Amino acid sequence: MAVLEILTFPHPVLRQRARKVERIDETIHRLVEDMTETMYRAPGIGLAANQVGVPQRVIVVDLSAGERPDERLVVINPEIVCREGRLRMEEGCLSVPDLRDQVTRCSRVVVRGLDLGGREVEIEAEDLLAVAFQHEIDHLDGILFIDHLSQLKRSRYVARRKKMLQEARAGGGA
Ligand code: K1U
Ligand code: ZN
To answer: Is 78 in the pocket of ligand 1 (CB under 6 A)?
Structure first.
């Protein structure tokens, strides 16, 4: 297993729509194990494959952030087939450094997809689990949680991030 680099905003791969997985082979198994290790190391409660530069429709979620690894969920080619209710919750994103903010999403979703054995799975999720699934499936469609914020908050973050990157480059060159 390996800890992979997590791409950060404004990396263009984060804006690409990830491709459907056609065959669940050894490469996908390895990718899932590496994504899991990367999520736990961050730490995070979810990760989408395009956050580690692989534009394929694979997500991992573990609300325990590695405390109880048997609770890890893997969904390949996930789709939301049912949405209900509204919920406002604070989110962060491993690809959007130094920002957390409130986002309104559905409070209950049903996610359908494949497990690592290629079997169809349907997961009913509420509250934080529902939010995590919506956040990760958004990633696969090139959507970031900042896209759910107001235009003003988003443009303030974009300016702040630009400054952070400029300062990091200037510091790194010294
Ligand atoms: O996809 C990602 O960038 C991971 C992200 C997922 C997420 C967080 C909050 C709401 C919805 C989706 C994170 O995991 S950010 C880190 C985080 O929230 C966390 C880390 C350790 C323990 C508990 C939470
Ligand atoms: Zn994220």
So the answer is: no
